Amino acid sequence: MDNPHFMRRIRSFVLRQGHLSAGQERALNEFGPRFMIPYAAEALDLDAAFGRSVPRVLEIGFGMGQATAEIAVGRPDSDFLCVEVHTPGVGSLLKLIGEQGIGNIRIVQHDAVEVLEHMLQPGCLDGVHIYFPDPWHKKRHNKRRLVQPDFVKQLVSRIKPGGYLHLATDWEDYAIQMLEVLSAEPALENTADGYAPRPDYRPLTKFENRGINLGHGVWDLVFKRRAG
Ligand SMILES: C[S@@+](CC[C@H](N)C(=O)[O-])C[C@H]1O[C@@H](n2cnc3c(N)ncnc32)[C@H](O)[C@@H]1O
């Protein structure tokens, strides 16, 4: 059951206009109708959306979608429901889908907080990926961070027992918050002792590589939903 007092909604993003390239616009027109699922405040039939029934992973905030596409190609036996608000990012992932003939991604362009609340049913997910969520560095903006107790509780309710939650961040203060929030959620258990080694399926992004070369850290967290 969802908490009836469920959060004052987190507003974790700012809608930027951003430049839409000609290629992204073309991809939106050409591949959008096939690979995008319109937001609706009702339960989504995932079998119908993907046309098959295999393990399902939700990704929140895929940015330009490079890692998303790479993961989907590397894991053809899973399906990926990918949520992002930013139009150029959606166009960019659709372009990759078209170029690489990727069949196991569907995109919802909407606030993931609402998608989670209205479109996804309890226990429908085998995994969740949230990579480099906006860190909201300033103390007074910390409340806009996605990874907070109420949101995590709801997220975990959508994951099957034994399913996983994989987060990554390059902002240490947020990594500490993630570890605290996930460790305090009784339905989750840590698969590692603290932070986890980067799982092989998550590619190193260009931006991350640059950070590592500059001596910056990246923290992965992999937790599982407890059985029962
Ligand atoms: C810092 S970027 C990281 C993008 C990507 N995961 C990566 O590693 O490059 C965070 C992304 O999350 C998206 N985002 C933030 N809050 C969101 C929400 N509530 N629903 C959907 N997308 C969201 C933003 O639009 C942005 O593209």
From TrEMBL:
Substrate binds at residues 138, 170, 205-208. CDD domains: AdoMet_MTases. It catalyses: guanosine(46) in tRNA + S-adenosyl-L-methionine = N(7)-methylguanosine(46) in tRNA + S-adenosyl-L-homocysteine. InterPro entries: SAM-dependent_MTases_sf (IPR029063), tRNA_(Gua-N-7)_MeTrfase_Trmb (IPR003358), tRNA_methyltr_TrmB_bact (IPR055361). One of its GO terms (cellular component) is tRNA methyltransferase complex. Its EC number is 2.1.1.33. S-adenosyl-L-methionine binds at residues 59, 84, 111, 134. Belongs to the class I-like SAM-binding methyltransferase superfamily. TrmB family. This is tRNA (guanine-N(7)-)-methyltransferase.
